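Flavin reductase family protein (Phytohabitans kaempferiae), 169 aa
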Amino acid sequence: MAVTPLDADSFRTLLRRQAATVTVVTAPGSPPVGFTATSFTSVSLRPPLVSFCLDRGSSSWPTVERAGHVAVHLLGEEQHEVARTFATSGIDRFAAHRGWRWGPYGVPLLDSPVAWLVCRVTQRVAAGDHAIVLAEPVQGQHAGGGAPLIYHMGRYASLTSPPEEQAAA
């Protein structure tokens, strides 16, 4: 049996079946940048390390490539619009979303996420058309027991309202 490599569309269709938490990563700059990411994960407890991935062709990459610190915001189930705003290209995301303030190290902090982490970037690893960014959390806060926003099958959902089954595109 011959095995054929997956093309990008088939790969994307398969991975849509993996549920992921939705985060917004922000970085200081003039102007600051922010983007929606579902690739956030914890990497290590000793030392504490997290990672996220970013397309090196994205408008946010030049700022993240130079940033010493970033903030990762774990969005709550009611924050669909925040996720959409920071996923929209070609707009000033911070003008469109006014609920933010300057935080430690000049990193923009969004209002009302389930939790946020300010992280020191420790490494950037090229991986295909993306970069894996490794970062050490240096500060953080959580808002209590809020349910996370989930991304599954191309839709935002929550743990209390799973996404409806959709046909693969």
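The helical segments are 8-15, 61-66, 80-87, 93-96. Residues 36 and 83 are 6 Å apart (CA to CA). ok done for today
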